[in-house]
């Protein structure tokens, strides 16, 4: 009798640009201060890519680490999927196609998804489906962002929040349920599309001089509304996925939320009564890196020796769309 196939997180990798931008650096550009940013967001610094460094470059570097740690070659990768809201090119080619080429992965499917800060959770859901259906044996998933290219440095309410980086993972097969991705939940509600939006350059507001003068090519956010809905949605999503899998918070080794804002992370963690030492926290040094946020946080936990083979992780994200998602998985 053929054994059942499960999807498993085989490796993690991340890359952050070298350039560190502190709150004091931003205070020289816009009317803000380290105290103002720290108090409202918990962010102390973030990384910005160089002018000639594209999202695909960040993604490629993270992917190489993930492939090396998974001990597989580019030839063994069956599919490449990139989650990003800051692709190399507006329409085509996809950033995934560029990354696959950079890695020497040829004649394999490669495509992007756009789910904003929930991107990595969406990637996990897709990869899991391709693995358990036996369509693929190894799926390379990457959350990568060069958000410095789409933030308005004249808007202090948004430019202080975001940073650049990439996180990658190899999702492979296993017959051991104790090594599996246990469950993934993803959802959305377009009713709140204007809470987090890049209004320009698409078919709704095509690129023209008037659109550029109104700076519609940059991220716009309704901060207070987003905060309130994020805390409520993230908390409910975690309660639901734990209940569905007959698990308690005590069964979780690490809670890894999207790193958007320390106040959101703290509010969700407190609502769920997670001990602070079991909550991953990287927002203070990377800012909000959207789809790259969660894999970058997992990578930090791994490199710091806080998680090991078999550790049970609970992931939770909320982003533009609005989209949200959660996942429970074994770190393998």
UniProtKB/TrEMBL annotation:
Record has Transferase as a keyword: yes
Subcellular location: Cytoplasm
Reactions catalysed according to its record: malonyl-[ACP] + acetyl-CoA + H(+) = 3-oxobutanoyl-[ACP] + CO2 + CoA
Keywords for the protein's UniProt record, in alphabetical order: Acyltransferase, Cytoplasm, Fatty acid biosynthesis, Fatty acid metabolism, Lipid biosynthesis, Lipid metabolism, Multifunctional enzyme, Transferase
Cellular component terms per the entry's GO annotation: cytoplasm
Gene3D superfamilies, per database record: 3.40.47.10
Pfam families xrefs: ACP_syn_III, ACP_syn_III_C
Stretches assigned to the Beta-ketoacyl-[acyl-carrier-protein] synthase III N-terminal domain: 111-190
Free-text function comment from the UniProt entry: Catalyzes the condensation reaction of fatty acid synthesis by the addition to an acyl acceptor of two carbons from malonyl-ACP. Catalyzes the first condensation reaction which initiates fatty acid synthesis and may therefore play a role in governing the total rate of fatty acid production. Possesses both acetoacetyl-ACP synthase and acetyl transacylase activities. Its substrate specificity determines the biosynthesis of branched-chain and/or straight-chain of fatty acids.
Annotated family: Belongs to the thiolase-like superfamily. FabH family.
Name of this chain's protein: Beta-ketoacyl-[acyl-carrier-protein] synthase III
Species annotation: Helicobacter valdiviensis
């Amino acid at each position: 009798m053929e054994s059942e196939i499960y999807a498993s997180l085989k490796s993690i990798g991340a890359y952050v640009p070298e350039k560190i931008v502190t709150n004091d650096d931003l205070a020289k550009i816009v009317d803000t201060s380290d105290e103002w940013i720290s108090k409202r967001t918990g962010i102390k610094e973030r990384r910005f890519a160089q002018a000639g460094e594209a999202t695909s470059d960040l993604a490629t570097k993270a992917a190489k680490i993930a492939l090396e740690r998974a001990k597989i070659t580019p030839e063994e990768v069956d599919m490449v999927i990139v989650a990003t809201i800051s692709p190399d090119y507006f329409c085509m080619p996809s950033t995934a196609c560029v990354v696959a080429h950079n890695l020497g992965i040829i004649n394999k499917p490669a495509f992007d998804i756009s789910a904003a800060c929930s991107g990595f959770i969406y990637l996990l859901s897709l990869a899991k489906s391709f693995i358990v259906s036996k369509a693929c044996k190894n799926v390379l998933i990457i959350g990568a962002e060069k958000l410095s290219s789409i933030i308005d440095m004249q808007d202090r309410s948004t430019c202080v929040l975001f940073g650049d980086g990439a996180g990658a993972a190899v999702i492979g097969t296993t017959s051991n349920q104790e090594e599996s991705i246990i469950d993934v939940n993803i959802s959305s509600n377009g009713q709140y599309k204007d809470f987090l939006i890049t209004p320009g350059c698409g078919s709704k507001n095509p690129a023209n001089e008037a659109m550029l003068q109104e700076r519609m090519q940059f991220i716009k956010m309704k901060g207070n509304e987003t905060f309130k809905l994020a805390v409520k949605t993230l908390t409910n999503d975690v309660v639901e996925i734990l209940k569905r899998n007959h698990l308690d918070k005590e069964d979780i080794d690490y809670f890894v939320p999207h790193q958007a804002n320390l106040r959101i992370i703290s509010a969700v963690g407190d609502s769920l009564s997670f001990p602070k030492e079991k909550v991953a926290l990287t927002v203070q040094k990377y800012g909000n890196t959207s789809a790259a946020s969660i894999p970058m946080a997992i990578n930090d936990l791994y490199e710091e020796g806080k998680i090991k083979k078999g550790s049970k992780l609970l992931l939770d994200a909320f982003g533009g769309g609005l989209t949200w998602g959660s996942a429970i998985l074994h770190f393998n």
